[in-house]
Design brief:
homodimer; DNA-binding; 3-stranded antiparallel beta sheet; 3 strands; 99 residues; alpha+beta
DNA sequence: ACAAATGGTAAGTTTTTACTTACGGTAAGT
DNA sequence: ACTTACCGTAAGTAAAAACTTACCATTTGT
């Protein structure tokens, strides 16, 4: 659930594609794999990583497993982004003062 | 300069460390490499990738090359993040209406 | 009870990526 | 002019990560 995990996770194109597919709404593994250039197990593995990073959640639904985005998942990334802005700006200011 | 490049770029721990070091202010390659667990050429290569992603800029300063964060570099990532929120929220709403 | 559908896991392979060493090139100092 | 300092690039290696096939477990439906 740290921003590091999130970045490592979204650093892969296939994983991004899966994640963005889920943005449209919950979907099963098979549905997600359909139309992808990789096999279903590959998608399943990516989903585990997305889950470990806190980006998606899943629920059992009969014989199939439905995944959906965790709204709070991108929180750490956003927080890091904001914090980065602040510190970088502060550093830039103190740089300007030096000259 | 797309969010994809930015994410691919920041998906590597060493690259993140270099980038975060630069947050404190401009620094030369040698300075950045000092105290890092990898060699100077490795840092140099990472800097090229960071530069290609639009995250850092560089200027020649005598025999040394100084790198510094591009304030606009994280823009695409932020935009993607915001857009993701909106769409995911919209999808969530229409999901709720279905039930 | 059996068959079909769905998906996680293991093992192994392939591909990608990061890293190192070696080299050359440029700028500053003596 | 020569030496020193600093850095990018090339080539090759090592390590990591993604992908596939094969298999097993669970659930649903007949």
């Amino acid at each position: 659930m740290s921003y590091r995990e999130v970045l490592d996770c979204l650093g892969d194109p296939t994983r991004r594609r899966v994640f963005e597919k889920l943005r449209a709404g919950p979907a099963s593994v098979g549905t997600l794999a359909r139309g992808m250039p990789v096999s279903r197990p590959a998608v399943s593995q990516h989903l585990q990583i997305l889950k470990a990073a806190g980006l998606v959640l899943d629920r059992a639904e009969g014989t199939r497993r439905v995944y959906y985005v965790d709204p709070a998942g991108l929180g750490p990334l956003r927080a890091w982004l904001d914090q980065f802005w602040e510190r970088a700006l502060a550093a830039f200011k103190s740089e300007a003062e030096d000259s």
